[in-house]
Amino acid sequence: MTSVDEQRSSDPVDLAGSLRALRQTAGMSQVEASRSASITQAKLSRIETGKALPTPTEVEALARVYEVAPERRRLMVDQAATMASQYVDSRVILQTGAHHFQQRIRETEAAAALIRSYQPALVLGVLQTSAYATAVFAGGGDLDRDGLSEQEAAKSVASRMSRWQLLAEPGRRWRLIQTEAALRWIVRSPRLMIEQLDRIAEASRLPHVELGVIPLNTVAPDPAPLHGFHIYDDESVMFGTETGTALLSESSRVAFYTAMFAGLERLAVFGDDSRELLDRIAAEHRKR
């Protein structure tokens, strides 16, 4: 179980505030500080607002520029290292409110210029209809089964639905990949899935969205990844399992998932081809 103190010590907002306060105390502008620490001003701005996770190397460089005492500098670097490989247990998500976690995902998406997402087992959260999301949260889904009350499930669904509007906002690109298998899995009823497929097709027509579907008969060079994941710019990657969610910012980990996503893109069909596939799946659901 993660304690309150442990959660606070790995809170990106806490570290962001500390770095911002240290820069101000040092009497330096973001331009001056970023130049001295050999990072971009844009990255420093995102770090200070909690929109980007700083690497331990970046924290070390900034702390030296701000002339932070060695002991405190070590603690800040350790905090950044913890954040760079952060794992949030599902029980902690449930205790603090799953809808708060959904809101945090929305804030991460809103801060990114490019979101790349892959999901092999269910519909991507940002694409889900209210009915599909209700089935996810009420049935357990990616959280502990039966862990959400009816009220908390409703709040979580509402938070997830609010992410839809981000798809249409300018200044942000989405590259989303689903598997045909996930879309053929009938959640609760064929009617629910038909409405869900219509929603996905609608998203595919938005100007900032590129949506791909990997057909079932695709011949792939490797077995499919075992879990979905989301890459935010080239700075962090998030993935979830049945028991928790991990957020990684280590450059080698992000590069690994970026390369994996590129391979999945080569297997997917996009544009009219993806919509034709969605129509065929919906037609088969209608026959049921």
Based on the coordinates given, report the CATH architecture of the largest domain.
Answer: 2-Layer Sandwich
Beta fraction? 5-15%
Rg computed from alpha carbons, rounded to a whole number of angstroms: 21 Å
State the CATH superfamily name of the largest domain. Answer: Endonuclease Chain A
How many individual β-strands?
A: 7
Distinct helical segment count: 14
**Distance N terminus to C terminus?**
45 Å
Q: What sequence of helices (H) and strands (E) makes up the elements?
A: HHHHHHEHHEHHEHHEEEEHH
Largest sheet: 7 strands, mixed
Our count of domains comes out at 2
**Class per helix and strand makeup:** alpha/beta
Summarize the structure.
The chain has helices at 4-9, 12-25, 30-37, 41-48, 56-65, 70-84, 90-96, 98-111, 130-138, 150-161, 180-184, 190-204, 251-267, 271-287; strands spanning 85-89, 114-119, 173-179, 209-214, 229-232, 236-240, 244-248.
Structure characterization notes:
This protein has 288 residues and is of the alpha/beta class. It folds into 2 domains: 4-83, 434 Repressor (Amino-terminal Domain), CATH 1.10.260; 97-287, Endonuclease Chain A (Endonuclease, Chain A), CATH 3.30.870.10. 55% of the residues lie in helices and 13% in strands. It has helices at residues 4-9, 12-25, 30-37, 41-48, 56-65, 70-84, 90-96, 98-111, 130-138, 150-161, 180-184, 190-204, 251-267, 271-287; strands spanning 85-89, 114-119, 173-179, 209-214, 229-232, 236-240, 244-248. Strands 1-7-6-5-2-3-4 form a 7-stranded mixed sheet, sandwiched between helices. A hairpin with a 3-residue loop joins strand 5 (229-232) and strand 6. Helix 8 (98-111) packs parallel to helix 10 (150-161). The model is unreliable at 1-11, 90-97 and 140-146 (pLDDT under 50).
